[in-house]
């Protein structure tokens, strides 16, 4: 339903944010994962027809939407990373304002829809309060409600769970999975877990290019047989990084769990481990010259002797 062909975008300061993006996305949840500055928001804004591209084409349901943005806008829902609100306007009044902009002209059904969305985003209690006084999480939920106005066919969500507490995040995930049955939902984030839990299809973006595409399980399965882990002391980390391809490391009960990429067991004390999406993500970023958590240096130069992995 959505097709992006050779999309390129260079800003006036010379930053080439998108370098020839090709993507075909059908109904359902599609995850876009990438580090800071990868070009995710640039792609989202261009898809939402808020900025022109230098090159390439975007088709939605067969319409060329860079040439005819008016064909997309009535069926588009967009949650940007940051959005402003009119000071003093209540959640209900502001949603009504946006609904009118989306040409929801029938007053009764418009108000019914707003009430449903306030309920779905848990904002009914504060419907008459000014959005400008909302907490970060409440504001984000308001943003989600406005994006869902008019039952969009293309829903573009840039970092939608930023600032949501675990309960609200969970509520939002359930809402999304219900919606995505007949909508193209593009979810941009750097939270790997969100994509893993929600998206049957995804792409990884780095330095303005798609570096991987597929189901999360397919991407992580590529690491099977090549991923090893061990628990080591903190002071051994730097030596381990020097000797092995460390994909990531994290503290576990005061020790460091290291994950290493190697064709065969890198050293006694390492055990094979099944690849997860996060491992695939860090591996791909490292292969494309990006800094990954596995390369973050420890200060200690002690010799590396891994302990028995649990
Ligand atoms: N309006 C702009 N003018 C100039 N440069 C920009 C503009 N917007 C983005 N950039 C640059 O384009 C590149 C891609 O930025 P973009 O915001 O699209 O990345 P992102 O993947 O969304 O990052 P983040 O996860 O940090 O939000 C960055 O180098 C950024 O500095």
Map the helices and strands.
Layout: E1 2-10, E2 16-25, E3 28-33, H1 40-47, E4 55-60, E5 63-64, E6 76-79, H2 91-101, H3 107-120, H4 136-148, E7 154-158, H5 166-179, E8 184-189, H6 192-198, E9 201-206, E10 209-214, H7 216-221, E11 227-232, H8 237-243, E12 245-252, E13 255-261, E14 271-272, H9 277-287
Parallel strand pairs: 3-8, 3-9, 6-7, 7-8
Antiparallel strand pairs: 1-2, 1-4, 4-5, 9-10, 11-13, 11-14, 12-13
Helix pairs in contact: 2-3, 3-4
The structure holds adenosine-5'-triphosphate.
CA-to-CA gap between the ends?
Answer: 47 Å
Can you list the strand order of the major beta sheet? 6-7-8-3-9-10
Q: Could you give a short account of the major beta sheet?
A: 6 strands, mixed
From the spread of the alpha carbons, the general shape counts as globular
- Bound molecule types: adenosine-5'-triphosphate
C-alpha Rg, in Å? 22 Å
Tally of separate helices: 9
Tell how many strands the DSSP assignment holds.
Answer: 14
Would you list the SSEs in sequence order as H and E? Answer: EEEHEEEHHHEHEHEEHEHEEEH
Give a verbal description of the structure.
The protein is an alpha/beta fold and 310 residues long. The chain is built from nine helices and 14 strands. It has helices at 40-47, 91-101, 107-120, 136-148, 166-179, 192-198, 216-221, 237-243, 277-287; strands at 2-10, 16-25, 28-33, 55-60, 63-64, 76-79, 154-158, 184-189, 201-206, 209-214, 227-232, 245-252, 255-261, 271-272. The strands form three sheets. The protein has a six-stranded mixed sheet, with helices on both faces. Strands 2-1-4-5 form a four-stranded antiparallel sheet, with helices on one face. Strands 12-13-11-14 form a four-stranded antiparallel sheet. Strand 7, helix 5 (166-179) and strand 8 form a beta-alpha-beta unit. It binds adenosine-5'-triphosphate. InterPro entries: AAA+_ATPase (IPR003593), ABC_transporter-like_ATP-bd (IPR003439), ABC_transporter-like_CS (IPR017871), P-loop_NTPase (IPR027417). Keywords: ATP-binding, Nucleotide-binding, Transport.
């Amino acid at each position: 339903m959505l097709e992006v062909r050779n999309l390129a975008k260079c800003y006036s300061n010379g930053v080439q944010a998108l370098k020839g993006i090709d993507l075909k996305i059908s109904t359902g949840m599609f995850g876009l994962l990438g580090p800071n500055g990868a070009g995710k928001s640039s792609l989202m804004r261009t898809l939402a027809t808020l900025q022109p591209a230098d090159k390439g084409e975007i088709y939605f349901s067969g319409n060329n939407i860079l040439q005819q943005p008016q064909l997309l806008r009535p069926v588009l829902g967009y949650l940007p990373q940051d959005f402003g609100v009119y000071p003093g306007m209540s959640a209900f009044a502001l949603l009504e304002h946006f609904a009118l902009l989306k040409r929801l002209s029938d007053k009764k059904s418009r108000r019914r829809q707003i009430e449903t969305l306030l309920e779905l985003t848990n904002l009914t209690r504060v419907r008459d309060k000014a959005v400008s006084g909302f907490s970060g999480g409440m504001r984000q939920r308001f943003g989600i409600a406005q994006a869902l106005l008019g039952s969009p066919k293309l829903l573009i969500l840039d970092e939608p769970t930023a600032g949501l507490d675990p309960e609200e995040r969970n509520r939002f995930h359930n809402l999304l999975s219900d919606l995505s049955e007949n909508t193209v939902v593009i979810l941009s984030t750097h939270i790997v877990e969100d994509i893993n839990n929600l998206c049957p299809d995804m792409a990884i973006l780095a330095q303005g290019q798609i570096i991987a595409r597929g189901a999360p399980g397919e991407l992580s399965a590529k690491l099977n047989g090549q991923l090893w882990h061990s628990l080591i002391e903190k002071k051994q980390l730097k030596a381990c990084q020097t000797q092995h391809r460390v994909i990531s490391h994290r503290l576990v009960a005061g020790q460091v769990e290291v994950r290493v990429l190697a064709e065969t067991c890198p050293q006694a004390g390492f055990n094979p481990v099944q690849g997860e999406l996060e491992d695939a993500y860090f591996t791909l970023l490292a292969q494309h010259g990006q800094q990954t958590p596995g390369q973050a240096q420890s200060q200690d130069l002690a010799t590396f002797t891994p302990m028995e992995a649990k």
